[in-house]
Amino acid sequence: MGQSILFFIFASSLFLLSNANQNPSNPPKPLVPPHPFQESEEQALLYLSELEGRYSGACNRQITVRWNYITNVTNATASESTAANTEYLNFQSSIQNEILTRFSTWSSFQNDAVRREFKYLAIRGPATMPAADVAAMTRLQSEMETAFATLEVCEYNSSNCGVRLDPEIEEKLSTVWDPDELAHYWTAWHDAISEAVPPLKYQQFLNYQSAMARANGFRDMSEMWMVTYDDETTGWTAEKFKNLIRNLWAQIKPLYEKLHAYVRMKFRRIPEYEPLIEKCGYIPAQLTGDMWSQDWSTLDNLTKPFPDAVSLDATEAMLKKNYTALRMFQEAEKFFTDMGLQPMTETFWNKSMLKRLDDGREVVCQASAEDFCLGRGSQDFRIKQCTKVTMDQLVTAHHEMGHIEYFQQYTDNDYIFREGANPGFHEAIGDAIALAVVTPSHLQCVLELDMGLDPAICNEDYYSQAEDNVTETDINYLYITALQKLVFFPFAISMESWRWEVFGGNLPLQKYNDRWWELRTQNQGIKSPSNRTSPNLFDPAAKYHIVSNVEYLRYFISHILQFQFYESMCIAAGQFDPESNTSKPLYQCDFSGSKEAGKLLRDMMKLGFSKGWTVALEAMTGSRDMSILPLENYFKPLLEYIDKELAANGETPGFGESCEAVAKYYISTVFEKEVSEWDEKFMQSLWSYLTDLKNETAKNIFEEVSLQSATYRKRVWEQVIRHFDYKSFQDPSLKRQLQMLNVIGTNALPEGKLKTYHEISAEMTEIYGTAKICPYNNQTCDLEKVGMNLNPEIEKVLTESEDYEELAYTWKAWRDATGRKLRPSYNKFVDLGNEAAQLNGFDNLKGMWLRTYESSSFERDCEYLWSQVKPLYEELHAYTRYKLRTKYPQIKSEDPIPGDMWGHNWEYLNKFLAPFPNVSTFDVTEALKEKYTPDLAGVSKMFDVANEFFVSLGLYDMGVSYGSKAQLVRPNDREVDCHASAWDFSNKKDFRLKMCTKVNQEDFITIHHELGHIQYYMNYKNLPNTFRDGANPGFQEAIGDVMALSVSTPKHMMKIGLAENQASLSKKSTINYLMKVGLDKIAFLPYGFMIDAYRWKIYDGSINRKDLEYEWLKMRSEFQGVVPPVVRDEQDFDAGSKYHVPANAPYIRYFVSYILQFQIYKELCVTAKEYPAQPLYECDFYQNKDAGAQLKKLLQAGSSKNWELILEDTIGRGKMDATAILEYFAPLREYLQEYRAEINYPIGWSNDAFEALLKRA
């Protein structure tokens, strides 16, 4: 751990504040008198030059007194250190006053270095505080640090109470295996430090720290600490940097969890430990060999993968070679000098404290490196370490000497720049060196320690020639390294996350200890050996860096940077080539003696703090980003080994009281929060794009968020969800969630392919959403000026024109603008979809789509349902064809019908098909137009009427969904996607509708349909995210249509004033009404089934990709009895003219919904006592609370159970059945049969007529 000069300024008391009760003296007057005017940049340069000696001298006086204190802890030296600290702080204050007086415009200086120097010199630290507050803060700091240094506890089962943390307790924790004895030392230390440093004292100290931070313009102390991590890029904030750290931890945590699971598995094989640890549980903290569970290296002997392989703990070999503390540091110096770096100075060797003093003095044994601030040409750099002859201490010696080397390299910089690029750099340098030092080859071949390894290991090409580079010894070596490196991360992030919360004032005093353990349990997967819930306990104080107020993030960062530095030096030394398969593996790289590696390191270190830290990182690694990839590369062989071992033993990464508890906690808390946030972000970006299709920024954001969201789901699945063996769990809800979550759809694709998938999807969506065609009478028009959109212009032509040629032109033009353009992309889209399905465990996309229906017989069930309703459809088809022939003689009596846009809704033909044209046809469009204007105000009132229907049933008011955030009409200023849709933003409060509403009966009914979705969303909003969906996809579509069946009855329209009040409909009016409804509902059924039956065949390979158009026309003819109005060829892709194909949205849900809506409608009518008292088609359950309660029960279930069970629970029948729809239309079917018998027109059609309309190559 290195002394940080900047911490004197920014953190005020990291190492500064020591024992003292005296008040600080009054601040001295500035040595340079203030000027009444602002001095120039040239004068600023002179000032900085003069300031260098003053600052160095003041710093040297302070650190000299501090050195005397930490190497001789007494009340006197503590008082002297406090006085020196105070004097130094006052000196800083005087300098800051000078700067504010003379150079307050420093931020406008042109010289970057000068501006940077003033920026950090101008931060005043505790100099902003009243003298009495500084004194109180100093006193509290020194009391806490002294308590830590002098605390003693009793020996286990002994009256000897003179046992200290270092070395006695630490030695016990690392050598004793009795869990009871370990628990004693762990608990005794934590209890004692809690008494010596109670939470109230720490809070009092933090109050002063917070005041100091605010006085310096920061929100809290954590933000003030973060100043040294400012990379000076635009938009940098402390919170963004914290999020960067959190994201890095999120990437590292899965690696740690694997190691944790492996250690836990090994512990459970030890009879004394097995009762203490659940299979997926937490590891007792006292068993980890370390007071803070941040270094598990002492567990190596108990848990190493290959106990009989050669040990890589060099301690015994060092003792055999008569190593001393001095020799350990001499070897460390040699490592640096062999790389062409600086030797240690004579002052270093004469004045450092390299072992605990034997003259009875109390010392602070925490290893540290100190720069005595003498600046240019300085020779005074020292290490303080109570060194013992162990391999761990050998590593520490290199680490601390890394600080000294850094000091020496940047000592010629100005005072403020004599610091690491950021605090993590200082910590990383020595550790990067240590990674080379602890390689087996360095220990045996360079240090000549007898490690018992193959002598050939000293040959340069040993590893590149070996058939299997990864030996048992290698795995053991990587394992002990991981016990030091990987294990450190969760403690560091827990500690700093806790302090960020405390500093921010977000944690009450009585929750200090509870939150400390929540974080440690969550991140480290450990549990305390004793109850720690008392508000009087303060376990954070058991860590030195808490009581000494040392920012700890530097160590987290250093543990990432060291692997980046190490890899870069290995590459420079020619020891590692990431592009070569024959390269020595990264973990075996030893760059000792490499002048090239030394130059790379030296050039970076010389920068000190003179540039933003990302510049220094780039100088060392070629990148400005922190990355865990070198760390992953380093540990890759070990992690692969652990994966195999865990899988072979039925173990799962993660921790909790049990595997199921781990899963339940993760799914219900972590995943629930994260996935809901990602869903909201995704929906927001998609909304922004679809409501402004020409906005490239919105499109790019949507594509980026789509990829990020997919990446998140894939990462969660790969790293967490798929590891839970949920089939053995007892909680049915948890089992169901995990079963559903184990299918991640296209997110399973590799990142590159997933990006391609989303790009193709966005491209096809844009083609469809922005497609326009020219009018029939202006076929070479300027599309931008007079081009027609699908909604409303094209649909208006198709529903109102009676010109066969205009209809045929419009039909073809739309397909030319959509399907024909989509076909080249669609094949690739299908390939990627099938690949994703296979990665999810399905044969193809068909299987993945059908999984949501949870039935192996679903396809057969649909075929049966179609067989039930097909005779009704055939009657309607025959009648329609007969009637259309009177208008269009081109239609032959036994042939299929030339299709409308899609052939799935014939309601617009009602003007030709109404059985009794002289009897009024039921349509409230004109009544709607009389009541509602086509603008937003008028359309909103239509939504109010629809909303009131739901409210009348005792269901939710959905006004929020069509409020200010909704899109209810087509805007005039931008292109939008007009496909009607309901949106759930996954935050339990934001629900929206998107429509380009027209004032007519069709859209009035559509409003009810879309509000049905919203009602569903609102009812299941409190379920887990995974269950926030329809019982099956058809349920979502059915609910609104159930309402529409009631709403669209003449009876209801009369109630709400949209139709004249009549006692009842005549038989002829009833037939007309049922014909109108049937032209929507019955005509849709074959298309609703066929479009996915077609795609299923594409997905499973039954359809040759060269024959997409042929097979489409064939199936349309077979199912619908419909043919195209013009000749087609295999450049066409008529299926792509339907929104759901380019959107890759399954369509069978609509077929299912058309069956279900009548089933559910019938049961609600029975509940409302509307049926069988009157015909089913006359049922209106408006204002019936009993029907509403029955429906609400169905809606609230979401997808939390199998849909057949939900159906059984709510309507009493769990299978889909078409009986209800047949009952509903029974009078119409009877009429059609009688009419056909009377007229004698044919029924059915020729299935090969389409052949003449396809031009084959």
What does this structure look like?
- InterPro entries: Peptidase_M2.
- The protein has 1257 residues and is mainly α.
- It has 49 helices and 12 strands.
- Strand 8 and strand 9 form a beta hairpin.
- Helix 16 packs across helix 23 (553-572).
- The longest helix is centred in the last third of the chain and has 33 residues, at 1067-1099.
- The protein starts with a helix and ends with a strand.
Q: Average pLDDT, to the nearest integer?
A: 90
Low-confidence stretches: 1-35
The biggest sheet amounts to:
2 strands, antiparallel
Derived from helix and strand composition plus strand pairing, the structural class reads mainly alpha
Instruction: Say how many strands there are.
Output: 12
Total of helices: 49
Helices, strands, pairings?
Layout: H1 5-10, H2 41-70, H3 75-102, H4 112-121, H5 131-150, E1 152-153, E2 163-164, H6 165-175, H7 179-196, H8 199-215, H9 221-225, H10 238-267, E3 283-284, H11 300-303, H12 315-320, H13 325-338, H14 346-351, E4 368-371, E5 381-384, H15 391-410, H16 423-437, H17 440-446, H18 462-465, H19 472-485, H20 488-503, H21 512-524, E6 526-527, H22 544-547, H23 553-572, H24 595-606, H25 613-621, H26 629-648, H27 659-690, H28 696-719, H29 732-741, H30 751-770, H31 783-786, H32 790-800, H33 804-817, H34 819-839, H35 845-850, H36 858-885, E7 897-898, H37 910-913, H38 925-931, H39 936-952, E8 981-984, E9 991-994, H40 1001-1019, H41 1033-1047, H42 1050-1055, H43 1067-1099, H44 1108-1120, E10 1122-1123, E11 1128-1129, H45 1148-1167, H46 1185-1196, H47 1203-1211, H48 1219-1224, H49 1226-1239, E12 1254-1255
Parallel strand pairs: 3-6, 7-10, 11-12
Antiparallel strand pairs: 1-2, 4-5, 8-9
Helix pairs in contact: 2-3, 5-8, 6-7, 10-26, 13-15, 15-16, 16-23, 19-26, 20-21, 20-23, 23-24, 23-26, 24-25, 27-28, 28-30, 30-34, 32-33, 36-43, 36-49, 39-40, 40-41, 41-45, 43-44, 43-45, 46-47
